[in-house]
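Why does residue order matter? Because the sequence determines the fold. Keep that principle in mind as you read this record.
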Amino acid sequence: MSQAQITDWLATQRQAMIDLLRDVVNIDSGSYDKEGVDAVGARFERHFAEHGIPFRRESHATFGDAIHAEVAKPGSNEKPVLLMGHRDTVFGKGEAARRPFTIQDKRAYGPGVADMKSGVVMNATAFHKFGGNPHPIKLLITSDEEIGSPSSRPVIEREGRAARAVFNSEPGRPTGNIVTGRKGGIFMHVAITGKAAHSGANFAAGVSAIGELAHKIVHIHALTDLDKGITLNVGLVSGGQSVNTTAPYAEGQIDLRYVDPADRARVMAAIETIIATSYVPGTSATLTVKGEFVPVVQSADSRALFENYQAAARQAGLTTLQGEFSGGCADSGFTAAVGTPTICGLGPVGGLAHSPEEYLELDSIVPRAQALALAILRG
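Structure:
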């Protein structure tokens, strides 16, 4: 199909995309909720079946299955363009019932409406008409991005290595821009062991794990270097047995963000030294990495891919679109790190992700889908 035929057809799909988005937003799909994540996957599979698009499911025992779909010209041996998106959210069971998909003043609301179910809906729609394209178009819908993609990372890296270019449809920025660079991130858990004792009658025999955690938090937070884009945050803590007992156990969860890949080893070594040091004698601690994202660092090829997309966006009427940096992490870092040209944040425009106020600009759905389609056609 020609550019005009595809963009004209996408202009007729606004309501169909909204209807599909309503269906998937109204299904709970927290990252650890395999049943819910797979239910969202099944809704997309039904969409593909209705439109005659071949698809397959790559199963996983613990997390949601990966969904693959592809359109290709018969006999093509070209490397594919890969469209990526995740269908999991940060919200627990019952959230969709508490605040289902709603529309107010040209904005849609609901759990995951922007991050990033709308981007997956856009991908699933935009690639319908590409069967005659010289290179194949592959779609990958993953299941656990919000917790660092523990099951999806090897799938993403494998598909990314095989692709000619990667478009990741995380939400477009509130500015209307897309994302050309991201921080890396590591999510860690620290567990501290102390010794319980009565805090009044036998205080000296106790060893406070909470006291040790407090020392470690101060030292970990001191590693923050805002000028270099390095931030450390201990965002969750717990511990103790009772108010009148020295704490035999404490734990914390650490978020590290960084920009320069070279900073990773240095900061991690500093954290490991802090964990190995007993500030309260008699305590011990262990550190576990729970999930990790790598940075999106713009290569020359990724810059060229962005310029190609920017030209396509102008054709779709998005005349002011630029690339911008995001402190958030995403699966796009994995494909960028394996050397495949990658751009991110191509989805419909939204904001306030991970909050009850998360919103999607409905008027952005069609032009963002058109920009994506035109970018693919431009090669």
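The first strand starts at residue 55 and ends at 58.
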